[in-house]
């Protein structure tokens, strides 16, 4: 009993000590927040009066102070989570962001800083100068527990109490909330090595279910923004997720790590102003995902640049002659001068109007040089001239071109030239008013790259003016900061990025979202095994630096256009210039669930079994098979039992029956992951996790899929329990659970 009392007393002293330090850090955060709020109010009180430059300066500072407040608010929860006691007697606290006191003495080390690396990498065999590593668990601003890892007993002060029951297992066993949480306090060594890997090049992170690959990708994005701030703050980071449900699931992670500037999209949202509301069979999406579309679309664009037979064009009471030789010369000049179709059209039309103006001037008996502009304008507005020049070089929109190809089979057949089979062409045919699908968006993006801006001439002038404005703003920002404004919170580049023609400048993320041609400093792709060849083309266009983090599991591929080997996706466009790392420990899925999922996937495709992973959790009773004649009633019972146990609950069923099952269970609207119950299909559940999963009719899911991926995904979502409700015979592999 005295030993228990002594341990309790030691733990209480440790908690009290850490509480005092955590209070100090939060006090400083409050001071910084008050300072930023005071500066923001001061700027806002200045109003909109003064010169244009004065207004621009105030707007820029207002945005920066608002961003600072947002960052400080986002890291409020679990701000301090680690402590390192070093062999030189120093002590270092680790948290979500770096914090210093008023004299610039460090209070908290940013988890991404090199000084924090031993918190994740140090071991007893290689302590890296660490004597003791302490994990702090907090609720709000209160320290509720600590856990100690003793790495060097010889260096430990006898007065230091040891405590803890395992921070990692505590985090793993906590109930899910319907929103993904960060793992910043419990990053494991193999994960940390991936997170801190160099930014250059293409890094592929292969990991089975539960290995934390999504969390690793998000933390890597936050780390790269910290380590490469100057580059990435200007160009931004693009995060591609498999669905909008998934993006809502992860939306709080990066802000909680101190980052708010990442652009998060699905492939269906990749082109600004283009909405993909349609759907189509997987076999059609697979056809649209093939790389041959780069040739097909190029031919379709080129077909809009035609040489017409010679013809007379009426201009007023006179006639001018359109000659094929003049058209060919105009085509050649345009193609030499410009990369895109619409930009080339400006040059082509200018050339043709000049040629036709000479004829028109001769027909009029000659004109004065100062009247030549009026002559050209008269030609430009003449109906015959307008129609002929459009036929010779048609102005295009990317969406219009793609819509026409599918609505006019003969146009697509001409452009395909054997790249598509007659059966492919029949599957692709659809009405002109059909809504675009996600696969169409990638074709629109390809077309937009070749067609260029619709207002090509105006866009060219705007680019030149924008560059001149940016240089002017940078010079002014350097002058402003040289006068002592800004409080040391910003650089000249950051301030210049906030200046605009009028009003506050858009953030990097906002500008990137509005610009289809934006190129990002780094791209993160989750569930990348599902991407088609056309998707890879679209992403590589947006990342000329070839700095990407690609995350996925080829065993979970479900799309027909996806890949079963990374080499198949990447060796072509990247010429083999990529590197692979694997995450091998499953932190999420109970071992009995994982073993069953592997058995089912292997039985479905013996030639391509899932990558082996080691489960960190041994819960032998986590699977329950529920045969029934009344599927809906049994699902209801399973849901009620799961909800009574606490935590999040998901029912996963085949896509064809999802809406019917949701209606039967009273679940309405789009999936809300914070609701007591969600009903999803394998496509929408990808990348998510729940405490309890009720899997409905595995045979139906397997039949609807192109491979073993869908069922494997659905089975590996639970962190606690899997119920399998079925009225039909179970697929091969389930006999392992029956035994």
Quantity of strands, as a count: 21
**Counting H and I runs of at least 4 residues, what is the number of helices?**
31
User: Globular, elongated, flat, extended or rod-shaped: what is the shape?
Assistant: globular
Low-confidence segments, given as residue ranges, are 161-166, 485-489, 498-504
Strand order in the largest sheet? 3-4-2-1-5-6
Compute the gyration radius: what is it? 31 Å
Cα separation of the termini:
46 Å
Largest sheet: 6 strands, mixed
Helix content: 40-55%
Give the helix/strand class.
alpha/beta
Strand content: 5-15%
Return the average pLDDT rounded to an integer: 85
Give the topology:
Elements: H1 2-45, H2 52-74, E1 80-86, E2 91-95, E3 99-100, E4 106-110, H3 117-121, E5 130-139, E6 142-150, H4 167-173, H5 189-195, E7 201-207, H6 213-227, H7 229-235, E8 237-240, H8 244-250, H9 253-256, E9 263-265, H10 282-288, H11 293-302, E10 311-315, E11 318-322, H12 324-337, H13 341-363, H14 372-381, H15 383-392, H16 398-407, H17 409-416, H18 422-428, H19 438-451, H20 456-482, H21 492-496, H22 508-514, E12 522-525, H23 533-541, E13 547-552, H24 566-574, E14 579-583, E15 585-586, H25 591-604, E16 614-615, E17 623-627, H26 631-645, E18 649-652, H27 655-664, E19 678-680, H28 682-685, E20 690-696, H29 698-704, H30 709-715, E21 718-726, H31 735-738
Parallel strand pairs: 2-4, 7-13, 7-14, 8-9, 8-12, 12-13, 15-16, 17-21, 18-19, 18-20, 20-21
Antiparallel strand pairs: 1-2, 1-5, 3-4, 5-6, 10-11
Describe this structure in words.
It is a single chain. The protein is 47% helix and 15% strand. It has 739 residues and is an alpha/beta fold. The strands form five sheets. The protein has a six-stranded mixed sheet with strand order 3-4-2-1-5-6, with helices on one face. The chain is globular. Residues 161-166, 485-489 and 498-504 have low confidence and may be disordered.
């Amino acid at each position: 009993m005295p030993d228990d009392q002594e341990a309790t007393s030691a733990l209480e002293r440790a908690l009290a000590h850490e509480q005092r330090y955590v209070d100090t850090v939060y006090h400083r955060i409050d001071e910084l927040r008050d300072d930023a709020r005071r500066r923001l109010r001061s700027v806002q009180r200045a109003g909109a009066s003064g010169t244009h430059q004065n207004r621009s300066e105030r707007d820029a500072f207002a945005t920066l102070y608002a961003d600072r407040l947002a960052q400080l608010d986002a890291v409020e929860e679990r701000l301090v989570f680690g402590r390192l006691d070093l062999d030189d007697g120093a002590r270092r606290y680790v948290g979500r962001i770096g914090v210093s006191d008023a004299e610039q003495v460090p209070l908290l080390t940013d988890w991404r800083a090199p000084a924090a690396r031993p918190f994740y990498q140090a071991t007893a065999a290689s302590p890296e100068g660490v004597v003791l590593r302490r994990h702090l668990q907090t609720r709000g601003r209160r320290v509720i527990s600590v856990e100690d890892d003793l790495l060097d007993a010889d260096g430990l002060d006898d007065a230091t109490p040891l405590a803890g029951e395992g921070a990692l297992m505590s985090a793993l066993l906590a109930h899910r909330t319907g929103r993904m949480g960060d793992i910043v306090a419990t990053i494991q060594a193999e994960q940390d090595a991936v997170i801190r890997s160099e930014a250059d090049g293409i890094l592929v992170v292969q990991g089975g279910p539960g290995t934390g690959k999504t969390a690793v990708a998000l933390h890597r994005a936050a780390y790269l923004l910290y380590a490469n701030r100057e580059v990435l703050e200007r160009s931004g980071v693009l995060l591609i997720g498999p669905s909008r449900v998934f993006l809502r699931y992860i939306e709080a992670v990066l802000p909680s790590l101190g980052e708010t500037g990442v652009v998060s999209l699905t492939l269906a949202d990749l082109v600004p102003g283009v909405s993909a509301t349609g759907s189509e069979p997987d076999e059609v999406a697979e056809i649209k995902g093939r790389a041959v579309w780069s040739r097909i679309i190029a031919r379709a664009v080129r077909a809009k640049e035609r040489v017409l037979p010679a013809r007379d064009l009426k201009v007023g009471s006179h006639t001018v002659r359109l000659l094929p030789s003049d058209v060919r010369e105009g085509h050649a000049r345009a193609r030499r001068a410009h990369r895109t179709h619409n930009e080339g059209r400006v040059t082509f039309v200018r050339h043709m109007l000049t040629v036709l103006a000479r004829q028109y001037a001769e027909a009029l008996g000659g004109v004065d040089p100062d009247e030549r502009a009026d002559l050209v304008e008269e030609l430009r507005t003449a109906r015959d001239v307008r129609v002929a020049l459009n036929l010779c070089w048609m102005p295009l929109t990317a969406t219009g071109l793609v819509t026409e190809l599918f609505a006019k089979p003969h146009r697509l057949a001409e452009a395909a030239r054997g790249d598509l089979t007659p059966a492919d062409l029949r599957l692709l045919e659809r009405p002109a008013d059909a809504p675009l699908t996600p696969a169409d968006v990638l074709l629109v993006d390809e077309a937009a790259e070749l067609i260029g801006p619709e207002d090509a001439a105006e866009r060219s002038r705007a680019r030149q003016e924008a560059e001149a404005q940016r240089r002017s703003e940078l010079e002014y920002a350097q002058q402003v900061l040289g006068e002592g404004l800004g409080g040391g919170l910003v650089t000249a580049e950051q301030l210049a990025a906030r200046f605009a023609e009028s009003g506050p400048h858009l953030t990097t993320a906002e500008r990137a979202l509005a610009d289809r041609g934006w190129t990002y400093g780094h791209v993160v792709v989750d569930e990348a095994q599902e991407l088609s060849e056309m998707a890879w083309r679209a992403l590589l266009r947006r990342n000329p630096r070839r700095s990407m983090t690609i995350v996925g599991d080829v065993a979970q591929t479900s799309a027909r256009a996806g890949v079963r080997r990374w080499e198949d996706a990447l060796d072509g466009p990247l010429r083999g210039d990529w590197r692979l790392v694997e995450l091998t420990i499953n932190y999420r899925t109970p071992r009995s669930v994982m073993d069953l999922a592997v058995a089912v996937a292997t039985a479905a495709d013996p030639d391509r079994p899932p990558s082996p992973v080691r489960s960190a959790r041994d819960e032998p009773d986590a699977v329950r098979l529920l045969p029934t004649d009344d599927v809906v009633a049994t699902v209801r019972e399973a849901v009620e039992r799961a909800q009574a146990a606490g935590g999040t609950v998901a029912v996963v069923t085949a896509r064809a029956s999802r809406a019917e099952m949701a209606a039967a269970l009273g679940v309405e609207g789009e999936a809300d992951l914070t609701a007591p119950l969600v009903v999803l299909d394998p496509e929408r559940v990808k990348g998510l996790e729940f405490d309890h999963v009720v899997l409905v009719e595995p045979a139906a899911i397997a039949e609807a899929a192109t491979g073993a991926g869908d069922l494997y995904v659905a089975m590996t979502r639970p962190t606690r329990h899997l119920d399998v409700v079925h009225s039909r015979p179970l697929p091969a592999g389930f006999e392992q659970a029956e035994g």
